[in-house]
């Protein structure tokens, strides 16, 4: 029907090369509604609204069905470039809508233990989409479309595998390597990416499985028999892969611990067991990556000296660095908004976004005053990791706020002091090394 909104089923099937807009529909776990009914009501909601500005989330609805069954409806991942871009109006009628309906699994992780009485776990295992991973994607702030690019890469590899494209003719694999300094969100991004893909590909795969391998524990406790344990662990993973309805993500976090062991072994400072374990991990990885429903995610905190064995195996290598000033501003803004929501900062006051400040030419006036203070704090914080930034408002309150509730103005002063303290501590640490 002309002028009506159009829905597509699969993210890669877009008939006329129109922009695809992804809509994520989080259904309440208590709901028993049919997906087709949910979809119908969501389409009607979108039709009523027609035009949205960038990312948008509905959590309250003007009709009973959605109120009863749906937690939220969100237009997601429309931003492709910098974080500070003009939120363009999106006319939903001129787009293809890809609607993803999901329920979160509330169960926490289960451990994949290898021996009945073994208290040390070799891996943690989640069913996706997991309640524990909810919101991580949105909370991570990167410049220049890193997140959407990664998402596009990985969904294309899964799509190619699913279509049985001959990888001798077109070469690609499903191994991702995120590398960069500690605390830049690499582990979180792996979890968020797996969660996102399990939601996006729900039409194709009934389940998502996420297995996080604990590299350190592979070497610690049962060092001498680790080789055998690696084989056992991968046998368990293989069982998950055998279910063709499942999309299986395997995360090997901090691969440098594997490569360090290997190098030490080559230098003769570690027993040759280490090299056996690492080789066994690599062989097993090569085995499982043949299966089309597997994605292997790896991270490394060292950038220069990653073992070539891993670099060569990864097709998608992405450097993840500390956030830019714009990124920092946006992280702080989300922290302050949370504290105002919880009424720890009170009364609620408006803060402008970096984009709004920019359009005002960073001119100082009543409306922009506190936001400009925040920008100065963000500029000063450059170089701190994402992990340090997310901890900063807590430190500011613990160290420099003496009252339970605090005004925004006072809190910004506390943050400024906390940043100074962080920078000072970091410099001291660097001088020690
Ligand atoms: N770019 C970022 N944007 C927002 N939060 C971040 C960012 N980088 C790190 N964080 C925060 O730091 C925490 C730790 O990140 P983590 O994934 O453990 O980093 P890494 O694996 O790189 O050491 C995350 O939970 C997240 O809250
Ligand atoms: Mg990590």
TrEMBL record:
MF GO annotations? ATP binding; ATP hydrolysis activity; identical protein binding
Gene responsible for this protein: TRIP13
What keywords would UniProt list here? Answer: ATP-binding, Differentiation, Meiosis, Nucleotide-binding, Nucleus, Oogenesis, Spermatogenesis
Q: What InterPro entries does UniProt report for this protein, alphabetically?
A: AAA+_ATPase (IPR003593), ATPase_AAA_core (IPR003959), ATPase_AAA_CS (IPR003960), ClpA/B (IPR001270), P-loop_NTPase (IPR027417), Pch2-like (IPR044539), Pch2_C (IPR058249)
- For the keyword Nucleus, the answer is yes
This protein's name: Pachytene checkpoint protein 2 homolog
Function noted in UniProt: Plays a key role in chromosome recombination and chromosome structure development during meiosis. Required at early steps in meiotic recombination that leads to non-crossovers pathways. Also needed for efficient completion of homologous synapsis by influencing crossover distribution along the chromosomes affecting both crossovers and non-crossovers pathways.
The protein's superkingdom reads Eukaryota
Q: Which GO terms describe its cellular component?
A: chromosome; nucleus
| Annotated Pfam families | AAA, AAA_lid_TRIP13_C, TRIP13_N
Q: Which residues form the AAA+ ATPase domain?
A: 172-324
The answer, when asked if Metal-binding is one of the entry's keywords, is no
Primary subcellular site in the record, as a coarse category = nucleus
GO BP terms: namely: meiotic recombination checkpoint signaling; oogenesis; reciprocal meiotic recombination; spermatogenesis
Its family remark reads:
Belongs to the AAA ATPase family. PCH2 subfamily.
Indicate where this protein resides in the cell. Answer: Nucleus
């Amino acid at each position: 029907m002309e002028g009506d909104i159009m829905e597509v089923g699969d993210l890669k099937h877009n008939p006329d090369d129109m922009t695809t807009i992804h809509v994520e529909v989080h259904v309440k776990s208590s709901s028993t509604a049919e997906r087709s009914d949910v979809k119908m009501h969501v389409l009607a909601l979108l039709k009523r609204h027609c035009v949205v500005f960038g990312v948008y989330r509905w959590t309250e609805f003007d009709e009973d069905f959605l109120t009863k069954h749906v937690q939220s409806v969100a237009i997601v991942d429309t931003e492709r470039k910098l974080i500070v871009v003009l939120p363009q109006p999106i006319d939903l009628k001129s787009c293809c809508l890809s609607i993803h309906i999901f329920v979160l699994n509330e169960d926490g992780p289960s451990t994949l233990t290898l021996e009945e009485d073994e208290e040390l776990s070799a891996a943690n295992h989640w069913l996706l989409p997991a309640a524990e991973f909810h919101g991580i994607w949105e909370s991570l702030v990167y410049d220049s479309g890193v997140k959407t690019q990664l998402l596009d890469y990985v969904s294309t590899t899964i799509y190619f595998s699913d279509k049985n494209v001959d990888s001798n003719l077109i070469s690609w694999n499903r191994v991702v390597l995120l590398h960069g300094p500690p605390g830049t969100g690499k582990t979180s991004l792996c979890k968020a990416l797996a969660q996102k893909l399990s939601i996006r590909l729900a039409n194709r795969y009934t389940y998502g499985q996420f297995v996080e391998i604990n590299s350190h524990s592979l070497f610690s406790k049962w060092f001498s028999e680790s080789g055998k344990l690696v084989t056992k662990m991968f046998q368990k993973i293989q069982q998950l892969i055998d279910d063709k309805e499942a999309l299986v993500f395997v995360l090997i976090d901090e691969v440098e611990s594997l490569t360090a062991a290997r190098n030490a072994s080559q230098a003769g400072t570690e027993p040759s067991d280490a090299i056996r374990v690492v080789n066994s991990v690599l062989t097993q990885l090569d085995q499982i990556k043949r299966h089309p429903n597997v994605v292997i995610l790896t991270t490394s905190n060292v950038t220069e000296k990653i073992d070539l064995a891993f670099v060569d195996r990864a097709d998608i290598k992405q450097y993840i660095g500390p956030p830019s000033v714009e990124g920092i501003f946006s992280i702080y803004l989300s922290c302050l908004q949370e504290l105002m929501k919880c009424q720890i900062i009170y009364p609620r006051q408006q803060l402008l976004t970096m984009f709004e400040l920019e359009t005002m030419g960073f001119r100082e006036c009543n409306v922009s005053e506190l936001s400009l203070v925040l920008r100065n704090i963000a500029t000063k914080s450059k170089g701190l990791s994402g992990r340090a930034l997310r901890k900063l408002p807590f430190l500011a309150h613990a160290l420099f706020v003496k009252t339970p509730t605090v005004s925004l103005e006072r809190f910004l002063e506390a943050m400024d002091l906390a940043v100074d303290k962080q920078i000072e501590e970091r410099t001291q640490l660097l001088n020690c090394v």
